[in-house]
């Protein structure tokens, strides 16, 4: 390997975005098979769309809003308006979803600890 740091650095490729069954678009920014301690993804939810109710088994998550406006629902009791530069923590095993209530795409970072894995995703719809 010419550059030992290349395993620690990457750039976002917009062509890697994929649509999920929970009604959002994802780019995995950091989710390494050799380091399951954490992951980071960029999520995009189109105007008027609410993601599917789901929870992450044994995985906590934070949303950090980059652009747009949304309403995050965490469990049965918390509904929080979200805007750029706001962050919300979602405890492991807690139902969650987010609605885009604005006129532009809602774009946010998803930080998971430990790293997101499809095996930990549970639909609660």
Question: How is this structure best described in words?
Answer:
The protein is an all-beta fold. The protein has a single domain (28-123), classed as Jelly Rolls, CATH 2.60.120.10. It is 0% helix and 50% strand. It has strands spanning 18-19, 25-32, 35-45, 54-56, 60-67, 70-74, 78-82, 87-90, 96-100, 106-113, 121-123. The strands form three sheets. A six-stranded antiparallel β-sheet has the order 1-2-3-10-5-8, with no helix packed on it. The mean pLDDT is 93.
Task: Tell me the layout of helices and strands.
Elements lengths: L17 E2 L5 E8 L2 E11 L8 E3 L3 E8 L2 E5 L3 E5 L4 E4 L5 E5 L5 E8 L7 E3 L2
Salient structural properties:
125 residues, mainly beta, Jelly Rolls, six-stranded antiparallel β-sheet, globular
**Rg result:** 15 Å
CATH architecture: Sandwich
Count of beta strands: 11
- CATH topology, by name, is Jelly Rolls
| Biggest sheet descriptor | 6 strands, antiparallel
Q: Report how far apart the termini are.
A: 46 Å
The proportion of strand residues reads over 45%
Count of structural domains: 1
CATH superfamily (homologous) name: Jelly Rolls
* Amount of helix: under 10%
CATH class (first level) name: Mainly Beta
Q: Could you state the order of secondary-structure elements as H and E?
A: EEEEEEEEEEE
Cross-sheet strand order for the largest sheet = 1-2-3-10-5-8
Which spans of ≥5 residues are poorly predicted at pLDDT below 50?
Answer: none
Rough shape?
globular
- Which class do the helix and strand fractions yield? mainly beta
């Amino acid at each position: 390997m010419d550059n030992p740091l290349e395993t620690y650095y990457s750039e976002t490729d917009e062509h890697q975005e994929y649509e999920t069954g929970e009604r959002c678009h994802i780019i995995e920014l950091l989710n390494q098979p050799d380091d399951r301690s954490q992951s980071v993804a960029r999520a995009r939810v189109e105007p008027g769309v609410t993601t599917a109710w789901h929870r992450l088994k044994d995985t906590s998550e934070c949303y950090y809003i980059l652009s747009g406006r949304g309403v995050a629902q965490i469990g049965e009791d918390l509904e929080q308006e979200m805007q750029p530069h706001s962050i919300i923590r979602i405890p492991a095993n807690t139902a969650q979803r987010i609605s885009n209530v604005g006129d532009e795409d809602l774009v946010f970072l998803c930080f998971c600890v430990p790293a997101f894995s499809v095996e930990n995703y549970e639909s609660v719809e």
